[in-house]
Amino acid sequence: MTARVSIYTSSALSSGVFDASGAAWRLTALNYSSGLPGGYLTCRFAFLIPSSRSLVFAKAQTVVVRQGVDIVWQGAIVNIGIRRAGAGYECEITALGPWQDARGQTLTATYASVTTGITIVEAALAAMATISTDYSLIANPGVDLGPVTYDGPCNDVILDVLKHGDSASPPNPIYFAIWHTPQGDTLPRAQMWSRSLTNVDWRVRWAETDLQVVDSAADVFNNVTVRYNKGDAVTAAATDATSIASTRKHTFGIESASLVAATAARDRFLAEHKEALPMLQGFRLSDRCRDGGGAWRSVAYMRAGHVMLLEDYPPSGLTFMVGAVDYTDGLGQRTDEVSVTPEQLPRRSDTMLGSGGATTQ
Asked: Is 126 helix (H, G, I), strand (E, B) or coil?
């Protein structure tokens, strides 16, 4: 599916300086990517121009990639290269999405008392000059932070909020991205949401891809105890009869002296480790994929954060989130391809509690 690439003097897309269409400005390469966290990541494209004097754009100008009428990528130019190509020239451009561009934008703020995570995120977004100020897609994670002090890139501030997850027990992961929405915004909008696999965006079958799933019981535990109060006390074992047949024991320690805290940590660990967690390898798709409703659609529209269903995974399918997407446009000369990296979701209690003293029987 051949795309249209445009360059504007401002992120508001009010004044265009270049449009890659027609024979004189023909695209010769196009690749763009998205990932979590972040949304739009990197775009690289090349095109033919009749003369080096035709270069009327510069670094920091806005790049927009459209598939049909939909904007599928937007960012700012960071590198421009040019070389002789036959009777004319070929120009190569690299652009970065707002998330990566925000590395150069900082937030300096001190919150002396407990502050909601959404307040901190919105303060970081206000320091980003090239995105929409409509924050209505920023879901409140329900987690309070503070007192905290920030003096660094906006990205790091937002990542600090994301690492806590939401207020569920156990917490759900929180995702953040900056991209366009179907509402037709001129500026990309920030979105933050709790992990959910309810609404399927794409459907795939094994015959259509080289997807590999590794289903291992290596980190399954169904008999868990916790050491607490400096190791002087141990909780009773929590077990799960619905887990695998063999008993697999695990013991770890926490700093708290509270039996209530130790019991909660034990139960959370057991809930997350009683079943095997399928691990999906990266895979590729060509040209088209079925959307959530089953209709064929160009893979050019696929992006990180979408939910995909592997329909013929036994016994009733496997639903997973797309963690990263790298799309290469065939430009009508070859097959369009997308490289998909499934979300690699760690068991959250491992990252929060650490490990310790595992024994298996």
From this structure: helix
Cβ within 8 Å of residue 232, ≥6 positions away: none
CA distance 51 to 40: 31
Residues in Cβ contact with 296 at an 8 Å cutoff, skipping those fewer than 6 apart: 288, 289, 290
One-letter amino acid at 185 equals: D
pTM, rounded to two decimals? 0.81
* H/E stretch holding 332: none
Closest CA to 310 of 203, 209, 216: 203
Contact 153, 103 (CB under 8 A): yes
Longest Cα–Cα distance in the chain:
80
Backbone angles phi, psi at 345, to 5 degrees: -95, 115
Decide: 226 and 263 in contact? Cβ < 8 Å: yes
Check residue 358 and give its pLDDT. 36
What is the C-alpha separation between 30 and 28, in angstroms, rounded? 7
Q: Ranked by mean pLDDT, which of 14-23, 33-42, 120-129, 137-146 comes out on top?
A: 33-42
Please tell me the distance from the alpha carbon of residue 157 to that of residue 149, in angstroms, as a whole number. 10
Please tell me the distance from the alpha carbon of residue 60 to that of residue 104, in angstroms, as a whole number.
12
4 token code pair: 């249209």
- Among residues 98, 134, 125, which one has the least CA distance to residue 11? 98
Q: Is the peptide bond before 182 cis (omega within 30 degrees of 0)?
A: no
Specify whether the CB–CB gap between 68 and 4 falls below 8 A.
no
Q: Do the beta carbons of residue 194 and residue 139 sit within 8 Å? A: yes
3 state SS of 92:
strand
